[in-house]
């Protein structure tokens, strides 16, 4: 969700003299919510139907909030593995719980990449946080663009790695591409003699995807790390809860490096409650969003000024306008319908990314899109 904006550290101040050079060069995070935080928010790929669970109503102190929380969230890990049907192959030793998957991304860089020496490989257009975390940790980023259809260029990607490449990030389904990467591609990367680092498969949108999670590959491929989150399908972006699943050696290192009490008791409680609502809430909400995704895509395809609607394996759609994408984004957002302009990303010229909302939100988005384009082109 985060990307860069202009640095604002005063050159006369003490901080400027003392800070690490790579941190000074860094720009503060910037996300769509910096500019627009109200209206119909279809910019951050959340689940606008709402959360899969709420905190337990309590007049007693059932969570013992005066005490530090469980540092390893064993109950939550067991329940998560059950939810993923992975309890027979994996144990809590294969699971890290973090403050969103963003915490896991940062920890992996801190664990595996020596600042100023090692590098990561990313495949643009992709999630912005890999680059941001790399900059914070003074880690070089090697980019190998996806194909225009958003496939991984396996040979080129492997060829771009070197002895200092520690992490290769594959976002599946991709953001902003919405495209799931087949297991065969992940296996090709994981088994190649050309690359000895980890393959990090970011599955933030996996619950919307027809391609199954690569969790099933973990017992055969100890060099794969899978990232997942409750921020998307579970509708729980506000509690900040993400997961990394991998070989116990990786998880042990993550536990060694994380802050001792990274997960607070309230988040853990809501996460456990949510995993009790899979059939009656999660699956129903995902189905609703998938149906709405079809409606939005069909309507977009009917518009003559929309030149491309990319296939979607996620809860958002990437589409291209004939022209004016940035202006359309801005006018719509100023008018209260917030999407994400992606036209600066590779292969995404004149593209907008829209998260799937509730029916009335999607209808309003489609109506405003037509009105705005017509006004701008008249
Ligand atoms: C691909 C991808 N990975 C990870 C995240 C962040 O997830 P979390 O909220 O768990 O930090 C996002 C959020 O937009 C995302 O798009």
Automatic annotation (TrEMBL):
Its cofactor is pyridoxal 5'-phosphate. It comes from the Eukaryota. GO terms for biological process: L-histidine biosynthetic process. It catalyses: L-histidinol phosphate + 2-oxoglutarate = 3-(imidazol-4-yl)-2-oxopropyl phosphate + L-glutamate. Pathway: Amino-acid biosynthesis; L-histidine biosynthesis; L-histidine from 5-phospho-alpha-D-ribose 1-diphosphate: step 7/9. One of its GO terms (molecular function) is pyridoxal phosphate binding. Residues 42-369 form the Aminotransferase class I/classII large domain. Gene3D superfamilies: Aspartate Aminotransferase, domain 1, Type I PLP-dependent aspartate aminotransferase-like (Major domain). Keywords: Amino-acid biosynthesis, Aminotransferase, Histidine biosynthesis, Pyridoxal phosphate, Transferase. Pfam families: Aminotran_1_2. Belongs to the class-II pyridoxal-phosphate-dependent aminotransferase family. This is histidinol-phosphate transaminase. It comes from Ditylum brightwellii. The lineage of its organism: Eukaryota, Sar, Stramenopiles, Ochrophyta, Bacillariophyta.
């Amino acid at each position: 969700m985060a990307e860069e904006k202009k640095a604002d550290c005063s050159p006369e101040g003490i901080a400027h003299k003392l800070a690490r050079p790579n941190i000074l060069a860094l720009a503060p995070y910037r996300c769509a919510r910096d500019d627009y935080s109200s209206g119909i928010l279809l910019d951050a790929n959340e689940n606008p139907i709402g959360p899969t669970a709420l905190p337990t109503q309590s007049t007693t102190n059932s969570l013992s909030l005066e005490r530090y929380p469980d540092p390893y969230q064993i109950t939550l890990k067991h329940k998560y593995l059950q939810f993923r049907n992975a309890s027979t192959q994996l144990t809590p030793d294969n699971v890290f719980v973090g403050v969103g998957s963003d915490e896991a991304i940062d920890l992996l860089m801190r664990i595996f990449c020596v600042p100023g020496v090692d590098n990561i490989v990313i495949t643009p257009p992709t999630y912005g946080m890999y680059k941001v975390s790399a900059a914070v940790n003074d880690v070089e980023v090697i980019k190998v663009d996806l194909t225009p259809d958003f496939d991984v260029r396996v040979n080129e990607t492997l060829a771009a790695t070197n002895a200092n490449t520690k992490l290769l990030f594959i976002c599946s389904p991709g953001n902003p591409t919405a495209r799931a990467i087949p297991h065969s591609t992940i296996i090709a990367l994981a088994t190649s003699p050309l690359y000895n680092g980890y393959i990090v498969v970011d599955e933030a949108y996996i619950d919307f995807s027809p391609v199954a999670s690569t969790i099933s590959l973990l017992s055969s491929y100890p060099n794969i790390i899978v990232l997942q989150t409750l921020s998307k399908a579970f509708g729980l972006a506000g509690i900040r809860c993400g997961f990394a699943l991998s070989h116990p050696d990786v998880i042990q290192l993550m536990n060694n490096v994380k802050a001792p009490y990274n997960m607070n008791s309230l988040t853990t409680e809501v996460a456990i409650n949510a995993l009790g609502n899979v059939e009656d809430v999660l699956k129903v909400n995902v189905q609703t969003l998938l149906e709405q995704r079809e409606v939005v895509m069909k309507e977009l395809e009917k518009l003559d000024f929309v030149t491309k609607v990319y296939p979607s394996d996620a809860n958002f759609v990437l589409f291209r306008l004939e022209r004016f994408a940035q202006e359309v984004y801005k006018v719509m957002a100023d008018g209260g319908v917030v999407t994400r302009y992606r036209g600066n990303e590779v292969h995404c010229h004149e593209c907008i990314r829209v998260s799937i909302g509730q029916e009335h939100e999607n209808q309003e988005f489609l109506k405003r899109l037509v009105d705005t384009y017509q006004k701008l082109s008249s």
